[in-house]
């Protein structure tokens, strides 16, 4: 713009007005500026020009917009009193702040907030969309809140939902397991096995078990240990796990359950001297454990970016084609595994 101003013999402000066709600038001056701009190959950035136009048209003080954080967990205090959910919330809040948004929290099971009343509150506060968090026990959203999903831009941070299916952001569960197996193989383990619960696997559309099948497909047949899929039952009665372990004798376990260490101890098996244990969701508090950091805070950030994009594009209600944003986990070494002798 400086070059155009010098070429036309005017100031930058005149160039700006002339290129917008402002009648404040005489026709001859406008023509001279436009010829200078053409000669120098100057072109306005259309995105910036549109933004500046909007700002000029609205002289009010900028208003801080707000996103809703919907707590779908059964516990009203899950945003603070849960092992994993606070990390998701932290990521949402952090990204919202960077993007100029505030956040308001709503518990979907609050008996004082009937869906219609919740919708009224959201609209009264100028909230156009939000992120659904904590729905880890079911991937079916409450049918009672259908008018919320239909009337606002909503994204799930966590497992894929059904009825309706919304866009969602979470760890790449398939890559998570494949990467964990690869890391154990690099340490010299030969017989990795998955220890989870079938309900958890179904919540993520079978991506954990299918990834384990793929990871084991390159192993000799005798090294392909079948998964133990009754983790929740084993928490009540570990003998079922112990019978499975005694039968198949894997040398490293991939699991969500820290109780595995105690279950193994009852079999006279030491961690990591006799068997390794890898946490599929290693939390910041899991000091000493090897495992995969799922970076749920980054998934929360991604959910904020997606819902803001939907708001800007006026994409309200369940999308015709839901999108998934998958975040790669990364390996954290710990004392629950060891380098195996070659």
TrEMBL record:
<keyword id="KW-0805">Transcription regulation</keyword>
<dbReference type="GO" id="GO:0003700">
    <property type="term" value="F:DNA-binding transcription factor activity"/>
</dbReference>
<feature type="domain" description="HTH lacI-type">
    <location>
        <begin position="1"/>
        <end position="53"/>
    </location>
</feature>
<dbReference type="InterPro" id="IPR010982">
    <property type="entry name" value="Lambda_DNA-bd_dom_sf"/>
</dbReference>
<dbReference type="Pfam" id="PF00356">
    <property type="entry name" value="LacI"/>
</dbReference>
<keyword id="KW-0678">Repressor</keyword>
<keyword id="KW-0238">DNA-binding</keyword>
<protein>
    <submittedName>
        <fullName>LacI family transcriptional regulator</fullName>
    </submittedName>
</protein>
<dbReference type="InterPro" id="IPR000843">
    <property type="entry name" value="HTH_LacI"/>
</dbReference>
<dbReference type="GO" id="GO:0000976">
    <property type="term" value="F:transcription cis-regulatory region binding"/>
</dbReference>
<keyword id="KW-0804">Transcription</keyword>
<dbReference type="InterPro" id="IPR028082">
    <property type="entry name" value="Peripla_BP_I"/>
</dbReference>
């Amino acid at each position: 713009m400086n070059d155009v101003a010098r070429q036309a013999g005017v100031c930058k402000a005149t160039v700006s007005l002339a290129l917008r066709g402002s009648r404040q600038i005489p026709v001859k001056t406008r023509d001279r500026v436009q010829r200078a701009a053409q000669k120098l190959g100057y072109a306005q950035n259309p995105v910036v020009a549109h933004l500046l136009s909007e700002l000029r048209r609205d002289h009010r003080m900028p208003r801080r917009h707000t996103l809703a954080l919907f707590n779908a967990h059964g516990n009203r205090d899950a945003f603070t009193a849960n092992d994993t959910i606070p990390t998701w919330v932290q990521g949402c809040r952090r990204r919202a702040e960077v993007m100029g948004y505030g956040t308001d929290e709503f518990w979907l099971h609050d008996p004082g907030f009937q869906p219609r009343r919740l919708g009224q509150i959201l609209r009264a506060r100028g909230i156009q969309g939000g992120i659904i968090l904590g729905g880890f026990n079911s991937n079916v959203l409450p049918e009672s809140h259908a008018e919320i999903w239909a009337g606002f831009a909503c994204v799930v941070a966590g497992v894929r939902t059904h009825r309706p299916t919304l866009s969602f952001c979470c760890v790449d569960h398939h890559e998570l397991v494949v990467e964990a197996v690869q890391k154990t193989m690099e340490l010299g383990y030969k017989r990795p096995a998955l220890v989870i619960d079938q309900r958890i696997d179904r919540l993520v559309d079978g991506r954990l078990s299918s990834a384990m099948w793929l990871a084991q497909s390159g192993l000799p047949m005798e090294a392909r240990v079948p998964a133990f899929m009754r983790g929740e039952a084993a928490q009540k009665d570990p003998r079922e796990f112990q019978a499975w372990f005694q039968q198949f004798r894997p040398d490293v376990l991939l699991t969500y359950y820290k109780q595995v260490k105690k279950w193994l101890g009852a079999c006279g098996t030491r961690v990591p001297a006799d068997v390794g244990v890898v946490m599929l969701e290693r939390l910041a508090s899991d000091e000493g454990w090897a495992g995969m950091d799922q970076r749920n805070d980054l998934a929360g950030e991604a959910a904020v970016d997606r819902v803001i994009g939907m708001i800007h594009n006026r994409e309200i209600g369940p999308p015709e084609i839901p999108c998934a944003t998958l975040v790669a986990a990364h390996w954290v070494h710990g004392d629950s595994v060891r380098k195996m002798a070659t």
